[in-house]
Write a structure and sequence with these properties.
single chain; alpha+beta; 3-stranded antiparallel β-sheet
């Protein structure tokens, strides 16, 4: 019985050490930073700080979409992020619409 308990305990120790080693095998360094965000020349502020990992900037999708006037929807079942961007009319189309009345 003592041999079984010893073998079981030894197996747990080896399994725990292997898991701990695997979890710390890869290191990722990220830098929290501040960016100046401009939309159509107007400076905007983000509430959440972006991060930079390996030279790539990661911005919060919902906040950036909000700055652009887009609506964000997330479907958990399909893990899909959808952006709905409003259609804006330029001044020439607005003028033409006024003539149609």
């Amino acid at each position: 019985m003592k041999k079984v308990i010893f073998a079981f305990s030894l197996g747990l120790l080896i399994g725990s050490a292997t898991t701990a080693l695997a979890a710390t095998n890869e290191t990722v360094q990220a830098t929290v930073t501040k960016f100046v965000i401009k939309v159509n020349g107007t400076e905007k502020a983000l509430q959440t700080s972006p991060i930079v990992v390996d030279g790539r900037s990661y911005l919060p999708v919902r906040e950036v979409a909000g700055l652009l006037g887009a609506e964000v929807n997330y479907d958990d079942a399909t893990r899909t992020i959808s952006l709905q961007i409003p259609v804006l009319m330029d001044d020439s189309k607005k003028t033409n619409l006024g003539r149609l009345k």
